[in-house]
Amino acid sequence: MTTFLGMPATAPRGVGHLRGDTTFPRAARQALGNEQLRRNLRHATSTIRGKSSRVIAELPDWQELRTAGSAIKADVMSRLPELLEQLEARVTERGGVVHWAADANEANQIVTGLVRATGSDRVIKVKSMATQEIGLNEALEAAGIQPVETDLAELIVQLGNDRPSHILVPAIHRNRTEIRDIFLAAMPGVDPSLTDDPPVLAAAARKYLRETFLSTRVAVSGANFGIAETGTLAVVESEGNGRMCLTLPDTLITVMGIEKVVPTWRDLEVFLQLLPRASTGERMNPYTTMWTGVTPGDGPREFHLVLLDNGRSAVLADEVGRQALHCIRCSACLNVCPVYERTGGHAYGSVYPGPIGAVLSPQLTGVEDNASLPYASSLCGACFDACPVKIDIPSILVHLRNRVPHPPAERAAMRAAAYTMDRPRLYAHAQRAAKLARIAGRRGRGLPPPLSSWTVSRDLPAPPDQTFRDWWASR
Amino acid sequence: MSSKDVILGRVRAALRDAPAPGEVPREYRRTFPGADLDLLVDRLVDYRASVRRVAEDTVAPTAAEIAGGTIVVPQGLPPAWRPADVLVDDGLAPDRIAAAAAVLTAAAVAVAETGTIVLDASPDQGRRIITLLPDVHIVVLRPGQVVASVPEALARLDPARPLTWISGPSATSDIELNRVEGVHGPRHLHVLLLDG
After folding, report:
1. What is the pTM of this model?
2. CB distance B125 to B73 below 8 Å
3. CB contact under 8 A, A202 and B172
4. Residue ranges of the Lactate utilization protein B C-terminal domain (chain A) (predicted)?
5. Which of A334, A338, A366, B97 lies 20 to 30 Å from A378 when distance is taken between CA atoms?
């Protein structure tokens, strides 16, 4: 019965959105051909980068805050069981109900059952990475329950039958004209003379969603932080859709990854400074809601907290990779990544794109299911510098590359190279052969198959006219 | 075996290398000099909130002028602040709150450095819903409620109360990163900063 304990389970296949249909290189090549996408992404990431660096520069203690944030997260991971049980106890004392979900299937079952019990056939949703990860919308729809995304970008994605492409701004790949067309095609009751002016588009969404907010009795949210010491949950947002969902309905169901727990109330003083500045480039996001259990006469009468594993314990088992669980989902690493900026989020295949996705997704699913993602990086290190909790993403990428099964041709080539380099005479011959290849005119055309897969995206340096050994011998 | 036992079992197994619980270095600033009301006003205005410095006896007429219609107030709002024609929240239905021109409340704390106002659902601030549905939110702030930094604000707040942190009006940047105010919450935030 306990044999599985030593082998932590990863996120189940066939459910949720952690695995793509195709490898990163293939998906990236397709994205690179889309000029509109690249223009939208370049504009968005450079704008956020600029805003973020301006407000970070205002804080003389930014590095001290990063150090504290990193240390708090490391502390959380080291005593996760104790903190989770403390959180459960505090939430329960304050009238909330805590559920534990080992994987996506169980979380979806719990939420679906809770919604059914209310008799509602519709839920309003706050944008949440955890519920996207487990494919909650699909599970609710299969159960005859309509999930309505209330974040503007998430609504654009939902109405467009699309997938999010960024953690913070899921519709970053769409421009205003595309958004107008999506609204005209899919938003019930939309004004047919809708223009593509951003305030007009936002007003259309406001009008459509107001009625839904006021008439839906159940809401589902994620959580940015859950405080063990007090049982308080926190959601940060901008639009007010979060406040609507968190305070208007009778029943609130919050799905939170187990890594989101923080020990004390005071710890928020670190993360509430790090998150908005790193994420949206604001000194503070427009709205933050904090609640502890239920408060009679104010807000939902029923509160359920679903604590989600879904592969997180597998990430925790890896001593190098576990720091990926420190992620506070700010998306700063996406905005500085030259690879993300050119390919966009869809190429990563998972709801977690960019550098953090390249380390988190393969660990949540098992590296064999996302084997190309650890290579979806140039290892330039910009993500490490940008991370507000100092996750060493490049080191985890390299660590994971060593766990990816290497293609037979590459293994054979590396073995042959090692053999040759161990034998001076053979090595000298090989160098001369390389020179011959140059004379034969292969320069610039890369290596012949199967080694061509290496040189298709890399320049093959031309061998020098004279090897070092020849030069030395001539002295 | 419950899912709780399964998850905690996996987590304990994952921590077999027994990483030491860490000391957290807290060398960041808890407060700093020079964070005065002017900094708060500057940050609020930067977020497109409107700020007026008023005497306590002019709160009511100023609020009435800003609202230009029905104002919802929480039951515990100081009587001196109440404009003549107000709708007191005694459990009002959402559609009545939404139909009001504005809501007028006090606040718990304000953070100068970030331009943030925190409501803690005390009687002079009321239920969370009343500051969410009207299009205009008028907040009255006493100078003594203003602190410099986020750490100072948290130290003053009670986590057991429902808390709403507000930094400017509702805003989105989801369409080509153009900031648009009032997607869902109040489109206008007015801060009345009391003298003395």
Report:
1. 0.92
2. no
3. yes
4. 405-475
5. A366
